[in-house]
Amino acid sequence: MMRRQFAAIGAGVLWACSAWAQPVGGPAHAPRQHWSFAGPLGSFDLRAVQRGYAVFAGSCASCHSLSQLHFSDFSGMGLSTSEVAALAATWQVPDGLDAEGRLKHRTARPDDALPSPYSGPEAALAANQGVVPPDLSRILKVYPGGPDRLYGLLSGYAPQAERQKGRGFFNPYAIGHFTAMPPPLHGNEVKYADGTVPDVQAEARDVTTFLAWVSAPHQDQRRRLGVGAGLYLCFLAVLFALLNRRIWSDVRK
Predict the structure, then answer these.
(1) 57 phi/psi in degrees, rounded to 5
(2) Residues 19, 23, 25: CA angle, nearest 5 degrees
(3) What share of the chain is helix, strand, coil (3-state, %, to 5)?
(4) Angle in degrees, CA 89, 219, 133, rounded to 5
(5) CA angle at 36 for the pair 186 and 45, rounded to the nearest 5°
(6) More confident of the two residues 248 and 73
(7) Can you spell out the DSSP letters for 88-150?
(8) Of 80, 159, 190, 229, whose CB is crowded by the most CB atoms within 10 A?
């Protein structure tokens, strides 16, 4: 009996290792996660959004852009006007060409869009072995699997992952189970002001929340407006029913 148990355990381990080493088919199904912004009454955890911005700025902004996001939009994640201006001042944006034809830069202002890390597609191709990193402004609106799969992708690399020639890095949640993107998170890339431990899972969750907010920065306002409109319509319906009953109360049936 003991031998059979050890044999079953060994077979399970070998199957798991073989599945990890030689995946087939489409991306693995990402485990379902709990997101505060999910559902018709969900809302964004703005602290998580702010932490996610820190992860993006420290680990993702060197390759990916957020071209549809302006610094002034950061007021929607709980920052004051002065904090938005201070945050913008930590970035440099293109400012035309100098007398010798070289690209100039200046300190960003709140009305500027977040700059691309590359001067153009050619520079992006040259820096990433022929692959242009996608813009992440609306990634969670178009990414199959939504935030669950993005979280799985960011946290699903094997320990000490290495690039395989002609294939990239193994990740069960990538299309074809391989991606050109090296592991972007290693833990402790940022220091959270609120004391949250910045391991890979926490960073992946926070940056996913941030990108979900970037994809729908006005979602909370729309939901509050929808709830208010629904309550108002319910009030009107009840008022109409009471008035209708009062008006026709003297009419014999």
Answers:
(1) -65, -35
(2) 130
(3) 45, 10, 45
(4) 55
(5) 70
(6) 73
(7) HTT-EEEEEE-TTSPEEEEE--TTSBPPPSSSSHHHHHHHTTT-PPPP-TTHHHHSTTHHHHH
(8) 190
Q: Which residues pair with 113 in a beta bridge?
A: 70
pLDDT digits (tens, 9 = 90+) for 59-107: 999 999 999 999 999 999 889 999 999 999 999 998 888 778 788 889 9
Instruction: Please name the helix (run of DSSP H) or strand (run of DSSP E) that holds residue 155, with its range, or none.
Output: helix 146-155
Residues β-bridged to residue 179: 169
* pLDDT for residue 10: 42
Q: For residues 43 and 36, is the Cβ–Cβ distance under 8 A?
A: yes
Amino acid identity of residue 81, one-letter, is: T
| Six token digits for residue 144 | 């199959």
How far apart are alpha carbons 57 and 211 in whole angstroms? 12
- In percent, the amount of the chain with pLDDT more than 90 equals 48
| Helix/strand/coil for 70 | strand
What pLDDT was estimated at residue 219?
82
HSE-CB at 79 with a 13 A cutoff on CA atoms is 19
The owner of tokens 């998170």 is 185
